[in-house]
Amino acid sequence: MRSFLKRLKDSYEVLRGRSASVNLDAFASSQTLSKQWLVEKLEECLEGMTTPPQGWRIWILGGWYGITNFILRTRAVIDVEHVRSLDIDPKCQPIADRVNKLWEWQEWQFKAQTCDVNKLSYNEGTPHIVINTSVEHVAGDQWYKNIPSGTLVVLQANDQLHSDHIWTCSSPKDLLERFGVSECLYEGSLEFKYPTGNWSRHMIIAIK
Description:
- The chain is an alpha/beta fold and 208 residues long.
- It has seven helices and seven strands.
- It has a single domain, classed as Rossmann fold (3-Layer(aba) Sandwich).
- The chain is globular, with a radius of gyration of 16 Å.
- The protein starts with a helix and ends with a strand.
């Protein structure tokens, strides 16, 4: 854990010196802990599955600065072929690539791209796993409808009232009812208590 925190701090220092437009909310305790929780539970769900010969192909929708990949790679439990981090904000791509430079320069084992996930095509290089930790931010459900049936999906949303949120999720059941899955492998919630207020992040890991 100490090594991970040092690498994350080093990445933050690099970013602070190179960009004045970095949103430091991406490095907030709740953001980091939510993604660590996601990776830990995903590791457990994949434990009994057969790993593809070249590793898992993972697409992260609304990937922001690529912190999910950073945690996944530094834990080094899941065998990964590549990770693609997709976000509609073009400012995210260069920052995410720098945070994950160790894997970006190695034949794009990680690569961030600017993309409207509601218009995403899965015709080439179809992922085994699709992650969206920002469900409450994405308009509509077309992004989910585009995902091929049988794909492993990891969805997170929270019940925090915020002007940027399009949808308020009150429980993992809300995610299951809204999107529908063929098999749910995990559902749970993570509660956060701060002086400014309490809220929960909800997650499902399932087969679409």
